[in-house]
Specification:
This protein is of the alpha/beta class and 213 residues long. The chain has a single domain (9-211), classed as Rossmann fold (3-Layer(aba) Sandwich). The chain has 7 helices and 8 strands, in the order H-E-E-H-E-H-E-H-E-H-E-H-E-H-E. The chain has helices at 9-15, 51-59, 72-83, 100-103, 133-142, 156-168, 193-198, and strands at residues 20-21, 41-45, 64-69, 90-94, 109-115, 143-153, 171-177, 205-211. The chain has an 8-stranded mixed sheet, sandwiched between helices. Helix 1 crosses helix 3. The protein binds S-adenosylmethionine.
Length: 213
């Protein structure tokens, strides 16, 4: 996702420090204090413009959500959308998802959502894929042993790569769909911006998986 630099983003982020964190390492062990209630924590990595995580937070007031995004101008757009109707159970973090284990304690997270992650199709860029073994290791550290990863994409190559990489890790699949929008699960599916844009072109793939004990 390439976006133009947004000159207002810096000021907007600073002005809304109650809802967005730019120094996540300083919040290690203190995330629950940023929410109205202490309750289970779910994290999305690569939140983009925020539609999915905002709708999830609305639908699940009994869960706290954190949306992690690497690009300042993208997360500023998510924050602006969120500020039209702020919720007490959603926070944003501007940072690289590769560092989750530097700001979450082991087992602190219940679910990790990865939606339409950048495919990085070239083999030499494989390490940048959010489902590469290095990222999986980080997720394993912060996820509760009973926790799951939920991954959606329209990119068949990335989905195939993810099935093999998770299988080798090893992880176990709890759910796999090769056409989410025509499956029973679709009834409760919350769509992302990319999903809305690209689902007319072909199927949406989804998997849910957990780490083997
Ligand atoms: N999830 C959104 C959706 O489905 O509409 C956005 C998808 S977009 C293709 C991928 C997003 O992941 C981009 O906004 C990108 O900046 C973000 N991203 C990529 N690598 C990341 C990383 N290591 N940590 C956090 N965000 C990342």
């Amino acid at each position: 996702l390439r976006v133009r630099n947004k000159p207002w983003a810096d000021g907007y982020i600073k002005a809304h420090a109650d809802y967005i964190v730019i120094d996540p390492q300083n919040w290690l062990g203190k995330w629950q204090s940023r929410f109205e209630k202490s309750q289970p924590l779910d994290v999305e990595v690569g939140t983009g413009k925020g539609q999915f995580i905002i709708e999830m937070a609305k639908a699940h007031p009994d869960i706290n959500f954190i949306g992690v995004e690497l690009q300042k101008s993208v997360i500023a757009t998510a924050l602006r959308k969120f500020m039209t109707a702020p919720l007490p159970n959603l926070q944003f973090v501007l940072t690289d998802g590769a560092n989750l284990d530097e700001f979450f304690h082991p087992d602190e997270v219940n679910k990790i959502f990865l939606n339409f992650s950048d495919p990085w199709p070239k083999k030499r860029h494989a390490k940048r894929r959010l489902t590469s073994p290095g990222f999986l290791k980080t997720y394993q550290t912060v996820l509760d042993p009973a926790g799951t990863i939920e991954f959606k994409t329209d990119n068949r190559g990335l989905f195939e790569y993810t099935l093999v990489t998770m299988n080798h890790y090893p992880m176990t699949f709890d759910y796999v769909s090769l056409d989410l929008h025509r499956s029973a699960e679709n009834e409760t599916n919350i769509q992302t911006e990319y999903e809305e844009k690209f689902s007319p072109n072909g199927p949406i793939y989804k998997l849910v998986a957990h780490f083997n004990a």
